[in-house]
Every structure is written in structure tokens, then in C-alpha cells.
Amino acid sequence: MDVVIILTINGLATGLLLFMMAAGLSVIFGLMGIMNFAHGAFFMLGSYASTWTYLKTGNFALAMLAGTAVGTFIGFLTERSILRPVYGKPLAQILITLGAFIVLNEMVKAVWGPNVIPSPVPPLLEGEFRVGGVLVSRYRIFIIFFGVSTAATVQWLLNRTRLGMIVRAGVENAEMIQILGVNIRRVFAAVFLLGTALASLGGTMIGPTLGQIGPFVSTQYLLLGFIVVVIGGLGSLIGSLVAGVLVGLMNNYVVWLYPPAAMPLNIILMSLILLVKPTGLFGKEGAH
Amino acid sequence: MSDTRILRVAGLHAFIGQFYVLHGVDVEVQNHEIMVLLGRNGAGKTTTLRCVMGLVRAHEGIVELAGENIKGLPPHEIANKKLTLVPEDQGIFSVLTVAENLQVAMRPSRAKKEDRRRLDFAMSLFPDLKQAWNRKAGTLSGGQKQMLALARALINENKLMMLDEPSKGLAPVVVKGLVPVMKELRTYASVLLVEQNLSFASKVGDAFSIISDGKTVQSGKMNDLIEAPETQRLYLGVHMGGGESAQIWTSSSS
User: Does the distance separating the beta carbons of A184 and B79 come in below 8 Å?
Assistant: First the structure.
């Protein structure tokens, strides 16, 4: 029983990080039909920049801030320099974002080396809580708390602000939103930036859960991100949240039972859901 | 000579992909006039509207709104020059509520008082919408969706409203109800109307223009068309009968 509780807590924490990774991916696709392969690199940039800052300064809050800033800034440059020229050209978008992903990966290796870097849990969040006889990691609880607040903030943005209203409308019918006088490119640039910020913020928290980071972070979490997006439904934020938690939980249970089965089972889960509901759990018919 | 033309389209050519869809469309809409664009399916009526809106690139020709060139501008800039389009599928955001559909359409940065007045006006034309205020627009009936689409176009002050087959898919009684609405619209803006329902078109239109195979072939006053069954047969493949007893002609293949 204790094991189940611990695995569930860990799974929730992983799931919320996956949500942060996938949310931007999903809404970016929903709005402009862009499959942004570079997204995984922003997650990794967040993790590297924050780990580096933490090792230098010992301040985890500062590290999270730095990681998010670096990832978002590189995301901003990416959108400006390579994505703008290929709006409306799906094949070019796939190639250029995949290219950016590879380049950013290699750049990280050039700066921080190809080997893994230790990423300790900050002392303040180290250790366990005792909850009814079960020891649960403080750091995991921190991630859950932080992830839930982030998800709530994003949900509020989407449902209560004019930008959010435009995004929801634009995901359903991008052409109509332009007919109504909205500059969709500018909206998209804002969404891209927010999505990038979320991914790099997620990235800043991944290190201490793994104990180390390395170049593997980008590929592994990009793949998981895509799985989450597809399961949740392209363009759906709630879908990303539910699917993120689902995949996170399943991963933790399966890894405890038989680690090599984790990734294949994710893909089987995705296939099963697509068989039953081809648009994903919360996907809308006809949205792209 | 004072120019009363709100829209001037001359010698318009356009491609959709590799297809040469428009080759020589000329349409002019006068101030506070309802101009009806007629033609068979696939003649290029919808493409003409989309071209004016900037959704399809105009390859060649003149597109002017109140004397100002709008050819080559992106759709949102054209919209902000006070021109709007209600597309054939109405473009309702089904995930948004009725209220949100109107809010998202309202161009910001105008006086609050003026916003309120336009909203009240739209609601007075379509009282049904007020009752469905907080419902998701996806749950509305076809007629209500059309009303929402029109209300959304009316919520901003526009020089020209382009309506693509507002009667499509509506019950005859609902179409009948649209006639006074259209006449009311004319006092607020000029209208460029694409219509397959000739009976409806002849009741609301002031002038007509016929497109055949991507080319304007005839235009004039609506009364002239009503009295020219030959023209109707030749370009529209329909015959309306005479005068008041005009039968409702419905498109069977749209």
C-alpha cells in the first residue's frame, strides 16, 4: 500500500511536468498547425540553465527563474528568426523545427559537455514528509503544488482573458478570427512564447527528480510530450493535463514493476486511445 | 463628381492553388446599397468575397474600399478598415458562448458607450440571442447561428458587410424573417450578398451582378433582372416566373 501511495505521488509529479512540456506543444499546434519539434530543446535548456545556476549559486528559486528566462529567450529568438519565414508551409515547419532541435541540442553539448551533470535536490526541499505512516518526498509535493498552480493559472488565462478567448476561438477556426480583425501572427507569437516559458519552467524542475540531467532529457521528454498531446487531443489544454497525469502515473507504476516496459506501454496506451477516439481524449472533430 | 462607391472591384484575377478561378470580375457597391452577386455553383462568387477579404490572394486587378486600395493587405488589416465577411459556414466558434462570440468580434479600443449601443442594437434585431446569452454557440440551431453570425458582423461599425449565402440551410419561414433584417442592415452599411435563392435575392437586392465561369457577364438594377427571364435562364439556369408570384427557387446542389 505504501508503495502505491509513493508511486502515485511520484506519478502525479511527473505528470504535471509532462503537462508543462505538452501544453505549449498542443496549443501551438491547435492554433497554427505547427508541429514544433524544437519544443523539447526549450525544456532541456530550462533544465540545463537552472541546474548550472543552482550549482553556481545554491539558490533554487533563482535557478528556476534563470532556466525559464534562458529557455523563453531562445524560444523567442527561434520564433522570430526561423519560424516566421515558414508560416503556412507545413513541410518547411517540420524540417526547420527539427533542425532547430538538433542545433540546440548540439549547442547544449558544446557548452555543458556530452556527459550527465548531477542535479541535487535543494536542501529546503530535501527529505520526506510523514503522511499517515508513509514517507513522501518533499520535492515531489513541491512539484505537484507548483504544477497545479501553474495549470490553474494557464486555465484562468485561457478562460478569463481576451487573449485566451481569442486563442480558444483561433484553435477552432483560425481564418474567422482574422476576418474579425485579429492579427493571428501576433497572437501566435504570444502563445509560442507562453508555451516556451511553460516548457522551460517544467524543465527547471526535472533535474532533481532524476538526480542528474543530460542531453537525453530533450529527446525523452519531447517524445513523451508528443504522446501526451496526442492522447489528450491536439489543441486541448485540459487534454494535456489529463493525459500528462495519466502517462506520468502509468510510467511510475510500470517502471517500478518492469522498467523496460515503460515506453512501449506509453505507445500502446496512445494507440488504444486513438483506436477508440481518433481525436484524442479532449480533441475536437475537424480541428485541423 | 462625388464618389459614392463603397467597394470597387475591377478586373480581378485569382488562383486557388493551380486553378485559375477568377478571370475578370468587376463589382461595384454603392453607399447603402445591397448588391447581390449571382451565378451558378462554382462560378467564383465565394472566391470573389474571399479575395476582397484578403483570404485569397488577388493576382491582378483593383480592389478598393471607399477609394482606398486594400489589395494585398492581410485579412485583419482589411477587417480594421471596416469591412467584414460572414462566410458560408457562418464561422461560429462553437466552443465559445454566444456572449464570447460577440466579445471576441468586438474591435477593442473604442468608447464603452458606443460598444454598449452597438450591442443593444444587435440584440434588438435578434432577441433570440439574448436568451441564449451564456449557452455554447455550438448548441444553437441553424437559424440562431446565422443570427449570431450577422450580429457578430453588426457589432462593429462597418462600411461594407459581405454575406455569403445567409439563407443557406435555413427553413423557408426563417428566410422570410431575414428579409426585413436585410433591409434594416442597409441603413447601417452597404451589403455585398452572395445568394443562390433568387426569390430571396430579388426581394432584398437593389442591384445585381452575375458571375459566370469566373467572369462578370452582366450587372444592373434588380428590377431589370426580374423582368429578364432570358438572362435568368442563360446564366442562372432558373426561371422565376413573373412579378409578385415569384416561386421560391432552392439550390439542389450546393
Answer: no
What is B1-82+159-254's CATH number, 3.40.50.450, 3.30.70.60, 3.40.50.300, 3.30.420.10? 3.40.50.300
Unique residue bearing C-alpha cell 534562458 = A70
Nearest CA to CA, how far is B90 from chain A (Å)? 9
Q: What backbone phi and psi angles, to 5 degrees, belong to B208?
A: -135, 160
Q: What ipTM is given for this predicted complex?
A: 0.87
Distance CA A16, CA B102 (A): 34
| Residues found in chain A | 288
Among residues A49, A36, A51, A196, the alpha carbon closest in space to that of A101 is found at A36
| Domain ranges within chain B, ordered by starting residue | 1-82+159-254, 90-157
CATH code for position A123: 1.10.3470
Assess if residue A7 is contained within a domain: yes
Nearest neighbour of B95 by CB, restricted to A172, A178, A179: A172
Residue B246 dihedral angles phi and psi, to the nearest 5°: -55, 125
Tell whether A248 is covered by a domain: yes
In terms of residue numbers, what domain contains A140? 2-276
Q: How many domains does chain A have?
A: 1
Q: What is the pLDDT along chain B (254 residues), one digit of tens a residue?
A: 457 899 999 999 999 988 999 999 999 999 999 999 999 888 999 999 999 999 999 999 999 999 999 999 999 999 999 999 999 999 999 999 999 999 899 876 666 777 788 788 888 888 888 889 999 999 998 889 998 999 999 888 899 999 999 988 888 888 888 898 888 888 888 999 999 888 899 999 999 999 999 999 999 999 888 888 888 887 887 655 444 334 444 444 33
| Nearest CA-CA distance, residue B238 and chain A, Å | 32
Helix (H, G, I), strand (E, B) or coil at B27: strand
**Scanning every residue of chain A, which has its alpha carbon at the shortest distance from the alpha carbon of B79?**
A181
